[in-house]
Amino acid sequence: MEPHAPLSLHVPEPEVRPGDTPDFSSVKIPKAGSVPRPPVDVDPREIRDHAFSIIRVLNRDGEAVGPWAGSLTPDELMAGLRHMMTLRAFDARMLTAQRQGKTSFYMQHMGEEAVSCAFRMAMAPGDMNFPTYRQAGLLIAGGYPMVDMMNQIFSNEADPLKGRQLPVMYSSREHGFFSISGNLGTQFIQAVGWAMASAISGDTRIAAGWIGDGSTAESDFHAALVFASTYRAPVVLNIVNNQWAISTFQGIARGGAGTFAARGLGFGIPSLRVDGNDYLAVHAVATWAAERARRGLGPTLIEHVTYRVGAHSTSDDPSAYRPKTESDAWPLGDPVIRLKSHLIRLGVWSDERHTQMEAEISDEVIAAQREAERHGTLHAGGKPSVRDIFEDVYAEMPPHLRRQRQQAGV
Amino acid sequence: MPRMTMIEAIRSAMYVSMERDEKVVVFGEDVGFFGGVFRCTAGLQKKYGTSRCFDTPISELGIVGVAVGMAAYGLRPCVEIQFADYVYPAADQIVSEAARLRYRSAGQFTCPIVIRMPTGGGIFGGQTHSQSPEALFTHVAGLKVVVPSNPVDAKGLLIAAIEDPDPVIFLEPKRLYNGPFDGHHDRPVTAWSKHALGEVAEGHFTVPLGKAEVRREGSAVTVLAYGTMVHVALAAAEEKGIDAEIIDLRTLIPLDLDAVVASVKKTGRCVVVHEATFTSGFGAELAALVQEHCFYHLEAPIQRVTGWDTPYPHALEWDYFPGPARIGEALAAAMEA
Fold this sequence. Notes:
The structure holds two protein chains of two kinds.
Chain A: H1 74-99, H2 113-120, E1 128-130, H3 137-141, H4 146-154, H5 186-200, E2 207-212, H6 219-230, E3 235-241, E4 244-245, E5 248-249, H7 250-254, E6 271-275, H8 279-294, E7 300-305, H9 326-329, H10 335-346, H11 351-374, H12 399-407
Helix pairs in contact in A: 1-2, 1-10, 1-11, 2-8, 4-11, 5-6
Chain B: H1 6-20, E1 24-28, H2 44-48, E2 53-55, H3 60-73, E3 76-80, H4 91-97, H5 101-104, E4 114-119, H6 134-138, E5 144-146, H7 151-163, E6 168-173, E7 213-216, E8 221-225, H8 228-240, E9 244-248, E10 251-253, H9 257-267, E11 270-277, H10 282-294, E12 303-307, H11 317-320, H12 324-336
Parallel strand pairs in B: 1-2, 1-3, 3-4, 4-6, 5-6, 8-9, 8-11, 11-12
Antiparallel strand pairs in B: 5-10, 7-9
Helix pairs in contact in B: 1-7, 3-4, 8-12, 9-10
């Protein structure tokens, strides 16, 4: 036998590092309107290519083109623009609030606003999302009060979660927003369980699971695919590929696989990639997947191809691991600007109206922050009661906790 | 009243619960068509259909994760982990999710699930079919932990657990599944069918969580035990001829501290017994509580009799966990001091 050379470990590396010129030449962007729109009861084997392409609706000229266009009216699109701009303004205010010491931590959505805002409009009342920490657009677009979000972020006396959760880890059963966990990926399999329960109960409601590109490496992701495909759960499984898991580029979790969406193919789950910065495309694909689920056709896996423009969180400095101008080079553009251009192209929007709406939204966010701060911030003003530490551990407080509460003097 | 083994009693509890509440669903590895490797779920699928009792992929994480999602929806999943030794892949879903969902969502989402699992040794199951992981779960705020010692309790506690609004870890001592082994591996097994405790009512009844039971009244020394060790302690007390009071804890969380304290204050001596390893075992918690609440009544140091701090041995398991002889020595030591 021929002698072999010593082995060496392959560790994937991003194309560029800080100081290099950003390069997205490896991200193959198909033309808007070029990916076919199959019927919702399509055999997954017939749409294998959808796991490797990218569904896009808005072209470079701001036109909505192709078979996935037309799922929204101009009024709905204007509402969508407002949701995204509100989320962006909310982010900006809360980032500043964190730097002012009013909260310990914040995570912004910059560049990814279309994913959650557009997806929310494809869901019906009573459906349940199992989100990660970067889908607050589900709440904003669902009409959840910004003041309550801020109360949660400030952990003040009006915090609906009584100061127990990290900032941005909201929950609202009423708004179809499951309680966020800091342990990544756990919600993905839970979404499948919720969907299975709906099917067991003969209900018509569906669930949506959310996970980031990095967290697809967690076992929960794989368990979710197994259970979703085995029981044909009425669930939409979303992977938000924003290219970065803190400092780790998406290639580390993906390895040699073609795409994240392709992971669904082995499970027989229809798997599609969508331009996550295209509000219309996200909405169209989400509507398609939700319809499949609601008609009992089973799960769909969607990879939202997007880019995290901001830092991972307020504790992160992306300039340490990627070129500073990389976000400008992202080939799929800014979701807000793209939808704005489309609305202008439709003749229902203008730069003046856009500027005016920005100002209106800014006033709303400032007013909400004023109201929230009246209830306190992390280190000043009203706080949840110390008694709240001991409540809700169990439905009824057991004797050992009652003793400890007495020890705490409350 | 019919006589039931613990397996039959557990099965009966699930029948009763599924009959009374259509939100109760049962699933896990092999529990559906086959009825479970220990046959605890036999017949449930036939009676209640595949959407209420079904087989799952071999994924403990998946089983518990799905149960959490179902509970958030409003169902009441009662899932089986085939052996307690297999629960570790599901640890994150139990510890980080099920246990604290109510707390972190301020009561908006709750997690009324039961996670059943055969626990403990004595059937030559080796390292991966014999462990007693109760202390891992008693350390987690938000969980309730139950260990029955006989068929009546197994049924009543399991129905109570399924009806409970919080997540319950339900540990079934597999050595008791078919009868009360007393710790002598050279002795024939007395079947539950010939045992008074095996008389189990067919219909609905509950044994409340958080209440201990005095299995043997005595005045000389208190033995705190649960599961299999209740029977081993009973045998030890008889053999030694010591007037021991034996308390079957039945639930570890919530613990019936009042019953423990009342007994130790009466006897002035305490022996704690469990099959799990010694260090940081639940016995350490019991000893600390007894010391804290009964210090001025104690006439001797608290004794602990437990499994050794080693991985679980296959061929020598009867030398690993406490038998009547070791408990008898501890009883004698407690009496001498």
